[in-house]
Amino acid sequence: AMESPLVQETKRIVAQFDYTGTDVNNGVKEFLRQMNEGLQKDGTSMSQIPTYVTGVPNGTEKGLYLAVDLGGTNFRVCSIHLNGDTTFNLTYSKVAIPKELMVAKTAQELFAFLAKQIEQFLKTHHEDHFEAHIRRRNTISTPDGFRDEHIFRLGFTFSFPVQQFGINKGTLIRWTKGFDIPDAVGKDVCALLQQEIDLLHLPVKVAALVNDTVGTLMARSYTSPGKTSTLLGAIFGTGTNGAYVEKVVNIQKSVDGEYDKSTGDMVINTEWGSFDNQLNVLPNTSYDIELDKKSVNPGIQMFEKRVSGMFLGEIVRLVLVDMVKNPNIALFKDDNSSTNDWRSTTNIGSGSSLHKQWGLDSSLMSIAVADNTPEHSTLRMQLEKELQVDSASFEDTQAFKEISYAVGRRAARLAAVALGATVLQSGKLSEASDEPIDIGVDGSLVEHYPFFRDMIYEALAAIDGIGPAGAQRIRIGIAKDGSGVGAALIALVAAGME
Ligand code: ADP
């Protein structure tokens, strides 16, 4: 039978998101090159930032710590009790970051909001602790009248590129993920947060600056099954990034500041979101180009723009907008509509989010891929609710599914480039051992997008130097609440260094 123009067009577009085994291998080669370039000098596309964290935990660490996480969509505050037996108890609150604060005039506006959330959290969950401090205020002579041993050590997870100068010192290099407060660039983000905490007289010391990937790595290593220490922590959420354990001898650029030299290792925050900003090997469809052009940071974070949750939905949206505008394709149209004006003939309400930048959340892709009901009824309902698309046809929903699958699959195979290259860089596969090579992952995309991990494994097995046997040794596990527990573990390490 003749295929409809919609089916043909869907096939044509899906093919543009193919990312073959050869592409994966070319990606790995270039990823290794850019990783090592970043270890040699500053100003490279992957920053390869030394974190001053020189080892990963083994599960015996103990104590009560605070952690906050500013990384994307939400601000999280939590307290963590490490039990010292690979388990922990976590108390948690989260609030959406108001959009206007992401692009505030001054850094102070954003950080005052964050300090307020910490105050609220302490009042709600640690009232006794908090009141005791207030009572002691005038009798004890620490700056705020708090007893030093009662001051919460806080790990500040700040998931943007920073130049770190010590375990609790670091200046913002640039914003990503839709944030844009030029005033904050170049400033020490720990000092900015401490200032606002002190204005509220809270018993809190910002003890450690933590990238969420480093936190994920630490948390996974504390909780990981068996006695294996974790090699790599990776995030696939709003953004994407990874941190891994590197040998200090491989870090040829200078590392200023104090750190423990006895382990011979240091955790490196790769900032792989900006892998291949120069587009030597990354795929680059017309949709990728358009997304980049209309973003707040064109030409930057090019890997992230093809891999992470914030961008995948937008890629799909740009594809759909193109299809909807083409009268021959008849996406989201009544069967009997025949005019060329797509605005009047589509089944899309005029205020549809489909026509707004960022209007399609990547969670809708997960729903689409997961919906295998004969009528795609879940997807159809969700299209109505989220995109105001009324009575989509089966061909419409099928096209939506296939495009979502293709964009998600390309992202997973690109993710495998980063994971596979890091495994090869570690040299662990050539060590005679059958210990698993442990990787901790976190983020909604890897947690919820159907088969994301399976698609990663499939691509890992296709990498020269890994192959199916190597892929089997790689153990990818979810590091739940990674940034919270991990930040507590780094605050613990930092408190020991005071
Ligand atoms: P963050 O990275 O901000 O800490 P998350 O890990 O929850 O938080 O990631 C949020 C991102 O993940 C958003 O970009 C959102 O679009 C995307 N996302 C949320 N749920 C899903 C899902 N079910 N499938 C795919 N992507 C999702």
TrEMBL record:
Residues 232-493 form the Hexokinase C-terminal domain. It is an enzyme of class 2 (transferase). Signal peptide: none annotated. GO terms for biological process: glucose metabolic process; glycolytic process; intracellular glucose homeostasis. Belongs to the hexokinase family. Residues 10-222 form the Hexokinase N-terminal domain. One of its GO terms (cellular component) is cytosol. It comes from the Eukaryota. This is glucokinase. Its EC number is 2.7.1.2. The chain holds residues 185 to 682 of 715 of the full protein.
